[in-house]
Amino acid sequence: METVAWIGLLIIAIVYFLFANLYLKKKRGIKRDSKSIFHEDKNRYVIMLQGVIFVRFVYALLYIFVELDFTELSLATRISPLGLLILQTFVAGLEEWVLYRDKKRYWYEWSETIVVGLVLGLLFLTGG
């Protein structure tokens, strides 16, 4: 990976850390509960949906890296499984927003969705 990509990833990580810890936690007072997929507040249908998305993500990675010739694939094809991670964090944020809107924990999930999207865009723009 190029130096620009590493610097971009570092900047994205620092901005997310500052946003999550200083703004959401300290200034807005939003506490984050357990991130575990098996937390007692999780809806079982959302757990199943996230499990299906994760299995599809693993399958897509294995298919791209094992079955196909990795060197002949375009960059968009090589990093496309990250789109499933974006979908998974979006689904988790949507669940938090629908079921526990008053706790405002969905801010964490949707900010992670934006971070994964930014990483995907950065990898695409810098050539991965």
Please outline what is shown here.
InterPro entries: DUF4181. The protein is mostly helical. It has one domain.
Tell me the number of strands: 0
Radius of gyration: 17 Å
Q: How much helical structure, as a percent, in the residues?
A: over 70%
Give the uncertain stretches in residue-range form.
none
**Structural class designation:** mainly alpha
Largest sheet: none
Number of helical segments with 4 or more residues: 5
Present the secondary structure layout:
Layout: H1 3-27, H2 44-67, H3 75-79, H4 82-99, H5 106-126
Helix pairs in contact: 1-5, 2-4, 4-5
Transmembrane segments: 6-24, 45-66, 78-99, 106-125
InterPro entries: DUF4181
Keywords: Membrane, Transmembrane, Transmembrane helix
Characterization of this structure:
This is DUF4181 domain-containing protein. The chain has one domain. The chain has 5 helices and no strands. Helix 1 packs antiparallel against helix 5 and helix 2 runs antiparallel to helix 4. Helix content is 73%, strand content 0%. The chain is mainly α.
